[in-house]
Design goal:
- This protein is mostly helical.
- It has one domain.
- Helices cover 66% and strands 0% of the residues.
- It contains 6 helices and no strands.
- α1 crosses α5, α2 packs antiparallel against α3 and α4 packs antiparallel against α5.
- The longest helix has 15 residues.
- It is globular and about 35 Å long.
- The two termini are 15 Å apart.
- The model has no long low-confidence stretch (mean pLDDT 78).
Length: 112
């Protein structure tokens, strides 16, 4: 229950995003160099601060989704949550049909 609440709180933060910052964030989370939980949350919020995910180009989203997919494959729940947040935000895009099919089976595992 607590982790679901954390996901929704972080999702609200996902209103804004910068592609380079997002890539850096996801790479550091995957490498395990993102620091403590508090530091990771701060880095996540900073990465989401300069441009709306909804306004990112399809190519920008495509460049970050493989990193989010790697997060879903992680054995760490906190890393999985950050990956799932990007997929949820992408799902809310009007043009998500061209972005999500390669990842739908893995995402479905987390949402069912």
């Amino acid at each position: 229950m607590r982790s679901k609440l954390a996901i929704w709180i972080a999702l609200v933060s996902l209103c804004r995003a910068d592609t380079g910052a997002l890539q850096h964030f996801y790479n550091s989370v995957l490498a395990g160099t993102s620091g403590s939980t508090a530091e990771t949350k701060q880095a996540f919020e900073a990465a989401m601060d300069s441009k709306r995910v909804q306004d990112m180009s399809i190519d920008e989203i495509r460049s970050v989704l493989p990193l989010a997919d790697k997060c879903l494959a992680s054995s760490r729940v906190d890393v999985q949550e950050y990956g799932l947040l990007l997929f949820i935000s992408t799902e809310m895009r009007w043009n998500n049909a061209s972005l999500l099919p390669p990842y739908s089976s893995r995402v479905r595992h987390f949402t069912s």
